[in-house]
Amino acid sequence: MIQKLKFAGLIIISSLVALNHDQIYIFIVFVISVLLSFYVGGNKILPRIKPLLLVSIFIVAINLISAGNITILSRILNGIINALKLISLSLVVFAYTMSTSPAEIVSVFSFLPRKAKVMLTITFSLIPITLKEIEKIQLVQKSRGYEGSSMNIVTSLLPLIMPLLNRTLKRAEQIGIILETKGYA
Question: 75-95, pLDDT tens digit by residue?
Fold first, then answer.
Protein backbone atom coordinates (compact mmCIF):
# COMPACT_ATOMS: atom_id res chain seq x y z
CA MET A 1 0.00 0.00 0.00
CA ILE A 2 2.85 2.39 0.85
CA GLN A 3 4.44 1.74 -2.56
CA LYS A 4 1.20 2.68 -4.34
CA LEU A 5 0.94 5.89 -2.31
CA LYS A 6 4.55 6.79 -3.08
CA PHE A 7 3.97 6.12 -6.78
CA ALA A 8 0.74 8.16 -6.76
CA GLY A 9 2.64 10.99 -5.06
CA LEU A 10 5.34 10.76 -7.73
CA ILE A 11 2.74 11.00 -10.51
CA ILE A 12 0.91 13.91 -8.85
CA ILE A 13 4.10 15.89 -8.14
CA SER A 14 5.42 15.22 -11.65
CA SER A 15 2.15 16.33 -13.21
CA LEU A 16 1.99 19.49 -11.13
CA VAL A 17 5.57 20.38 -12.02
CA ALA A 18 5.09 19.68 -15.71
CA LEU A 19 1.78 21.53 -16.05
CA ASN A 20 2.36 24.47 -13.70
CA HIS A 21 3.85 27.71 -15.04
CA ASP A 22 4.02 29.65 -11.77
CA GLN A 23 7.64 30.65 -11.27
CA ILE A 24 7.53 30.74 -7.49
CA TYR A 25 5.90 27.31 -7.32
CA ILE A 26 8.50 25.84 -9.68
CA PHE A 27 11.33 27.34 -7.62
CA ILE A 28 9.87 25.99 -4.35
CA VAL A 29 9.47 22.50 -5.86
CA PHE A 30 13.05 22.73 -7.18
CA VAL A 31 14.46 23.56 -3.74
CA ILE A 32 12.39 20.81 -2.08
CA SER A 33 13.45 18.25 -4.71
CA VAL A 34 17.14 19.14 -4.27
CA LEU A 35 16.87 18.84 -0.48
CA LEU A 36 14.90 15.59 -0.74
CA SER A 37 17.41 14.11 -3.19
CA PHE A 38 20.35 14.96 -0.96
CA TYR A 39 18.50 13.55 2.05
CA VAL A 40 17.60 10.28 0.30
CA GLY A 41 20.62 9.82 -1.97
CA GLY A 42 23.43 11.63 -0.20
CA ASN A 43 26.51 12.02 -2.38
CA LYS A 44 25.06 9.70 -5.05
CA ILE A 45 23.17 12.70 -6.44
CA LEU A 46 26.28 14.70 -7.36
CA PRO A 47 27.31 12.66 -10.44
CA ARG A 48 23.74 12.90 -11.75
CA ILE A 49 23.50 16.68 -11.43
CA LYS A 50 26.30 17.47 -13.90
CA PRO A 51 24.50 16.09 -17.00
CA LEU A 52 21.31 17.83 -15.86
CA LEU A 53 23.16 21.13 -15.69
CA LEU A 54 24.51 20.65 -19.21
CA VAL A 55 21.01 19.88 -20.50
CA SER A 56 19.68 22.90 -18.59
CA ILE A 57 22.17 25.19 -20.30
CA PHE A 58 21.09 23.71 -23.62
CA ILE A 59 17.41 24.36 -22.76
CA VAL A 60 18.12 28.01 -21.92
CA ALA A 61 20.09 28.39 -25.19
CA ILE A 62 17.24 26.86 -27.22
CA ASN A 63 14.77 29.22 -25.54
CA LEU A 64 16.99 32.16 -26.44
CA ILE A 65 17.07 31.12 -30.09
CA SER A 66 13.54 29.87 -30.70
CA ALA A 67 11.15 32.28 -28.98
CA GLY A 68 11.66 35.27 -31.24
CA ASN A 69 8.49 37.23 -30.46
CA ILE A 70 9.24 37.96 -26.77
CA THR A 71 11.99 39.91 -25.05
CA ILE A 72 15.39 38.40 -24.35
CA LEU A 73 14.83 38.60 -20.59
CA SER A 74 11.56 36.66 -20.95
CA ARG A 75 13.30 34.06 -23.10
CA ILE A 76 16.02 33.59 -20.49
CA LEU A 77 13.43 33.38 -17.70
CA ASN A 78 11.38 30.81 -19.66
CA GLY A 79 14.52 28.78 -20.29
CA ILE A 80 15.46 28.84 -16.61
CA ILE A 81 11.92 27.83 -15.57
CA ASN A 82 11.93 24.95 -18.06
CA ALA A 83 15.38 23.86 -16.87
CA LEU A 84 14.22 23.97 -13.24
CA LYS A 85 11.21 21.85 -14.20
CA LEU A 86 13.44 19.25 -15.83
CA ILE A 87 15.86 19.15 -12.90
CA SER A 88 12.98 18.96 -10.40
CA LEU A 89 11.34 16.09 -12.26
CA SER A 90 14.64 14.23 -12.51
CA LEU A 91 15.45 14.71 -8.84
CA VAL A 92 11.97 13.64 -7.69
CA VAL A 93 12.27 10.46 -9.77
CA PHE A 94 15.79 9.95 -8.37
CA ALA A 95 14.51 10.29 -4.79
CA TYR A 96 11.69 7.85 -5.56
CA THR A 97 13.99 5.23 -7.07
CA MET A 98 16.56 5.61 -4.27
CA SER A 99 13.94 5.15 -1.56
CA THR A 100 12.08 2.29 -3.26
CA SER A 101 13.46 -1.09 -4.23
CA PRO A 102 12.91 -2.39 -7.78
CA ALA A 103 10.66 -5.14 -6.42
CA GLU A 104 8.46 -2.54 -4.70
CA ILE A 105 8.30 -0.46 -7.88
CA VAL A 106 7.27 -3.50 -9.92
CA SER A 107 4.66 -4.45 -7.30
CA VAL A 108 2.94 -1.13 -7.96
CA PHE A 109 2.32 -2.35 -11.50
CA SER A 110 0.64 -5.59 -10.40
CA PHE A 111 -2.27 -4.90 -12.76
CA LEU A 112 0.00 -5.25 -15.81
CA PRO A 113 0.43 -8.51 -17.73
CA ARG A 114 3.22 -10.87 -16.67
CA LYS A 115 5.48 -9.99 -19.62
CA ALA A 116 5.25 -6.27 -18.85
CA LYS A 117 6.21 -6.91 -15.21
CA VAL A 118 9.22 -8.95 -16.34
CA MET A 119 10.21 -6.11 -18.67
CA LEU A 120 9.96 -3.57 -15.83
CA THR A 121 11.97 -5.79 -13.50
CA ILE A 122 14.74 -6.17 -16.06
CA THR A 123 14.74 -2.45 -16.80
CA PHE A 124 15.00 -1.44 -13.16
CA SER A 125 17.70 -3.99 -12.48
CA LEU A 126 19.77 -2.81 -15.46
CA ILE A 127 19.83 0.86 -14.45
CA PRO A 128 22.34 0.44 -11.58
CA ILE A 129 24.35 -2.03 -13.67
CA THR A 130 24.61 0.53 -16.47
CA LEU A 131 25.65 3.26 -14.04
CA LYS A 132 28.41 0.98 -12.68
CA GLU A 133 29.51 0.25 -16.24
CA ILE A 134 29.82 4.00 -16.85
CA GLU A 135 32.03 4.33 -13.77
CA LYS A 136 34.20 1.39 -14.91
CA ILE A 137 34.59 2.82 -18.41
CA GLN A 138 35.51 6.22 -17.01
CA LEU A 139 38.11 4.61 -14.76
CA VAL A 140 39.58 2.64 -17.67
CA GLN A 141 39.67 5.76 -19.86
CA LYS A 142 41.43 7.71 -17.10
CA SER A 143 43.97 4.93 -16.60
CA ARG A 144 44.73 5.13 -20.34
CA GLY A 145 45.41 8.84 -19.94
CA TYR A 146 42.23 10.14 -21.54
CA GLU A 147 41.08 13.51 -20.24
CA GLY A 148 37.72 14.73 -21.48
CA SER A 149 37.48 18.20 -22.94
CA SER A 150 34.74 20.47 -21.70
CA MET A 151 34.99 22.48 -24.92
CA ASN A 152 33.37 19.87 -27.18
CA ILE A 153 30.96 17.68 -25.25
CA VAL A 154 30.23 15.28 -28.10
CA THR A 155 33.84 14.33 -28.75
CA SER A 156 34.59 14.10 -25.05
CA LEU A 157 31.69 11.67 -24.51
CA LEU A 158 32.44 9.39 -27.48
CA PRO A 159 35.10 7.34 -25.63
CA LEU A 160 32.47 6.74 -22.94
CA ILE A 161 29.42 6.19 -25.13
CA MET A 162 30.90 3.74 -27.64
CA PRO A 163 32.05 1.08 -25.13
CA LEU A 164 28.86 1.61 -23.11
CA LEU A 165 26.69 1.03 -26.18
CA ASN A 166 28.72 -2.06 -27.06
CA ARG A 167 28.38 -3.57 -23.59
CA THR A 168 24.70 -2.61 -23.28
CA LEU A 169 23.77 -4.11 -26.63
CA LYS A 170 25.66 -7.32 -25.81
CA ARG A 171 23.84 -7.54 -22.48
CA ALA A 172 20.49 -6.89 -24.16
CA GLU A 173 21.18 -9.63 -26.68
CA GLN A 174 22.07 -12.08 -23.90
CA ILE A 175 18.92 -11.19 -21.96
CA GLY A 176 16.84 -11.57 -25.11
CA ILE A 177 18.25 -15.05 -25.72
CA ILE A 178 17.61 -16.04 -22.10
CA LEU A 179 14.03 -14.76 -22.20
CA GLU A 180 13.41 -16.54 -25.48
CA THR A 181 14.65 -19.85 -24.08
CA LYS A 182 12.39 -19.42 -21.05
CA GLY A 183 9.34 -18.85 -23.23
CA TYR A 184 8.78 -15.09 -22.88
CA ALA A 185 9.05 -14.44 -26.64
Answer: 888 888 988 898 888 888 888
